[in-house]
Write a structure and sequence with these properties.
The protein is an alpha/beta fold. It folds into two domains: about 250 residues, Aspartate Aminotransferase, domain 2, CATH 3.40.640.10; about 100 residues, Aspartate Aminotransferase, domain 1. Helix content is about 40%, strand content about 15%. Strand 6, helix 9 and strand 7 form a beta-alpha-beta unit. Helix 2 packs antiparallel against helix 11 and helix 4 packs across helix 11. It binds pyridoxal-5'-phosphate. Pyridoxal-5'-phosphate binds next to helix 5. The site of pyridoxal-5'-phosphate has 13 residues, from helix 5.
Length: about 400
């Protein structure tokens, strides 16, 4: 397997403080930010200290505006289709609860749907009388498109899919699901929380109405940030579940109007420094290029997967051909927490995905799994070291 070129690894590592002091394989948790992302935030926080928070926000209007245009470039959409939210879950909520669904309306999702999304679907099914079908994935952990087609009924309104799950690294066929949703006139809500920043995302090709994500994972942005894409052509049909003095304009004592664009889903108060930081993170990714990023992350993900599969003491859980930078595994003779500790003691960050947070998937097997997640700034040498420690 030869490494893809096109990426200036020395420079990227020089711009990633502390990446030489540890091996960070927890990018699916929260990646190391490029220095510019941290510096932009600190500089805005200093400005807030110096001249006041509102005054600093006024001065940083262009940087805040860049948030929308940068995401528009990343996702191939219009800046007016982007909203800033505090995390991916809130972005998902904003989209889902803006749909005018009535009792009896039917929603389809898959068994690898992110836990918080699924719990909110369950909650809504219980309290609003919505019908919910959960498609089982195939033996490779990929959503079964025939099962999806078969599940569609006359009252089906929405398909929810998680592009790259939290507890397994298989990239789901988002475009194929989009084609089915369009064919049947269904709303399509894609959770791209783990895929944003590691694979190319093009909302036109995917055909989703909504796409939500977070800043801190593969986008390498700050914690406490998220974003929502909402398709312009359908925006007028969407009624935010809650509004404030930012999402609507108060016209007279008894009337108001919704913002005309996706910012109708935003809050008035926000962490401006973090928003500017996330815009800088997206700019950083755009400079490298989404294709180059995807090539390298998937190359390293495959190397990690195959290196783990070669270890007799390790069970690797991904079986599909469509691997991301996330690989899950268990050491046969050690529980997941001890394995994580072993790696951490050697300066290697990983995480544990818990069965209780993936009841439809890992939970059925009563399994907690180790999760190692590589980014483009990681190296082959780090994978070698990781394998050596894991086998010790
Ligand atoms: C697939 C997926 N969706 C959504 C989320 C939630 O993201 P946030 O914590 O930003 O709400 C996560 C977090 O791990 C995730 O892995």
């Amino acid at each position: 397997m030869s490494a893809p070129s096109a990426i200036d690894l020395d420079r990227i590592r020089a711009e990633t403080p502390h990446c030489e002091q540890l091996i960070h394989f927890n990018n699916a948790g929260s990646a190391l930010s490029p220095s510019t992302v941290t510096e932009m935030q600190i500089s805005h926080l200093n400005l807030e200290q110096e001249i006041g928070g509102y005054e600093a926000a006024d001065r940083a209007q262009a940087k805040q505006a860049r948030f929308y245009s940068a995401f528009a470039e990343l996702l191939n959409c219009q800046p007016s289709e982007i909203a800033f939210l505090e995390n991916a879950t809130r972005a998902w909520h904003a989209a889902f609860h803006a749909l005018e669904l009535k009792a009896g309306d039917h929603i389809i999702t898959a068994d690898m749907e992110y836990a918080s999304n699924y719990l909110d679907l369950l909650h809504s099914a219980k309290h609003r009388g919505l019908a919910l079908t959960t498609i089982a994935s195939d033996q490779d952990g990929v959503v079964d498109l025939d099962a999806l087609r078969a599940a569609i009924r006359p009252n089906t309104r929405l398909v929810c899919l998680t592009h790259v799950p939290s507890q397994r690294g298989d990239i789901q066929p988002a475009e194929e699901v989009g084609a089915i949703a369009r064919e049947h006139g269904l709303w399509y809500l894609l959770d791209a929380c783990q895929s944003a920043g590691q694979v190319v995302l093009d909302v036109e090709r995917i055909g989703c109405d909504f796409l939500c994500g977070t800043g801190r994972k593969y986008l390498r942005g700050p914690r406490g940030t998220g974003f929502l894409y909402a398709r312009n052509s359908r925006l007028q049909e969407l009624v935010p579940a809650v509004v404030d003095l930012h999402s609507v304009q108060w016209i007279s004592a008894g009337s108001y109007s919704l913002r005309p664009d996706a910012t109708r889903f935003e809050n008035w108060e926000r962490n401006v420094a973090a928003m500017i930081g996330l815009a800088a993170a997206v700019d950083y990714a755009l400079k490298i290029g989404s294709e180059a990023i995807e090539r390298r992350v998937r190359y390293l993900g495959r190397l990690l997967h195959d290196s783990l599969a070669d270890c007799h003491n390790i069970i690797v859980h991904e079986r599909s051909q469509n691997l991301s930078g996330i690989v899950t595994f268990n050491r046969r003779d050690m529980d997941a927490d001890d394995t994580k500790r072993l790696l951490n003691t050697a300066g290697i960050n990983t995480s544990v995905s818990r069965g209780m947070n993936a009841q439809l998937d890992l939970g059925k097997k009563g399994l907690d799994v180790n999760r190692a997640s590589v980014h483009y700034y990681n190296t082959e040498a780090e994978i070698e070291r990781f394998i050596a420690v894991l086998n010790s």
